[in-house]
Known about the structure:
By secondary structure, the protein is mainly beta. It folds into 2 domains: about 5-80, SH3 type barrels, CATH 2.30.30; about 90-165, Alpha-Beta Plaits (2-Layer Sandwich), CATH 3.30.70. It is about 15% helix and about 35% strand. The protein contains 2 helices and 11 strands; from the N terminus they run E-E-E-E-E-E-E-E-H-E-E-H-E. Strands 1-4-5-6 form a 4-stranded antiparallel β-sheet, with no helix packed on it. It has a 4-stranded antiparallel β-sheet with strand order 9-10-8-11, with helices on one face. The protein has a 3-stranded mixed β-sheet with strand order 3-2-7, with no helix packed on it. A hairpin with a 7-residue loop joins strand 4 (about 20-30) and strand 5 (about 35-40). The model is unreliable at about 180-185 (pLDDT under 50).
Amino acid sequence: MTKPKAIKVCLVNRGADSETPWAHDLGPAPGGKGARRVRLVNVPFLHAKPTWGDVIVVAPAADGLPTWDRDGVAWAKIGTRIAEDGGRWAMIVDYTPRGASAIAAFRALAAACADDDIVCEGAWPPRGKQAGRAYLAVDGALADRDVMARLAAAKLPCALAQIHPAPRAPKASASPSRRARPRRRR
């Protein structure tokens, strides 16, 4: 079996949010002249879905890049625009090195992600006081809290901040019910 050819594709939403991730060409697809099935092999920055591992159908476009268009489909129905869901979802974390170079911090983050089968791609490195950013393609079996807990357990040489999805606030402790409240002495 031959390795699929890597090609650049374009992801858009009605012409906006254009980005060009790499994909593996899987061959012709129904849907018009020149349509191709491709599997994404990057974690897109502007599109949370499709992401790494998803198969989409791209079509020739005027600029020459085979293009996938979200076409304004609501997020809840994005699966209708994906030929085969690769089972991953997108997560974004910021990282700030602690006692390590920016490169060492990112390499440690990427290695910790790989240990948990999370695809990690750098968006930009830390600059001055600005944190670096990494985009993750996370296995669907993991929740964002699981990812953050696993990365914390890896004792990385960087501080992490969850950007997307927005972290949920910790559950506030409920006030005791009337029955559970201690009686006041009079």
